[in-house]
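Handoff note, outgoing to incoming analyst
You'll be picking up this chain. Sequence as last confirmed:
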Amino acid sequence: MASLNPEKSREKRKLTGFRASVESRRHARRWVRAEQKVVLVVLVLATLVSVLATVGIIYTLLKESYGFFQVVPVWDFITGTKWAPLFEPQAFGVLPLIAGTLLAAGLAGIVALTLGLGAAIYLSEYAPDRVRRIIKPVLEVLAGIPTVVYGFFALSFVTPLLQSFLPIPVIFNVLSAGIVMGLMIMPMVSTLSEDAMVAVPRELRDAAYALGATRFEVATKVVVPAALPGIVAAFILALSRAIGETLIVTIAAGATPNLTLNPLESIQTMTAYIVQVSLGETPQGTLVFKTIFAVGLLLFLMTLIMNIVGRWVVRRYTERY
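Most recent structure output, in case you need it:
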């Protein structure tokens, strides 16, 4: 009997250790499940915050704009060619603000797409790794410069430079604002486009080189078409940023709601008007105060349409290529 006791003791210890191991694994699994639930709750709350913020913005715009459109018809607001809510007689035609916004954003888009895409092609297809590691952070520094600095740069440097060889009658003009705004959003286009080009498979380049294509032909006829969804997404994102820009156009483009396509004249954008009215001098609840929400709602709809069109273009070219 005495010889059996050690074996029974060992079996008992093994059984006890096995039970402890099973209980430890169960405890670890419960702890992992609890962690996963906590992470899931945090992620859901983060998603709900962004959704609720968007819903709150839309609700505020619709609520305040409703009072405005009860006085001013929507059709007159959209098609009117004179914008003078701060003067008598008042006029609430928003076309001058739309024209100024699109003109400034269009000029910025041309500058950003030209320079940004050229920089992206160079960094992706031509630049050595050492040069790329130096130039890319330098380009990204431009995105971190405060927009007020860009505004005064446009007003005090770019505009006098343009006046030296262009007949610009006043210091405020949309051309200088558009050029500087294009420089501001150019890093966004170049960085995202370069990332899209780098992601193009190396086999496509090798196949083009095997057929006798030059480096420029490979970059423009193989890499750019293959990376077109990413390039379009970068351009749409940068253009949306330009449409919503405030300080550059407020400082450099002036505050004249002018229905014109002449880039040498002073204009006023939708964001610049919102800043002008929301400085605190306009009493809340008045019709003039509610114009900022009507203009903001229209600006929101414009950016929403741009993003929808951009997603459609990206999806179409993704399926194509």
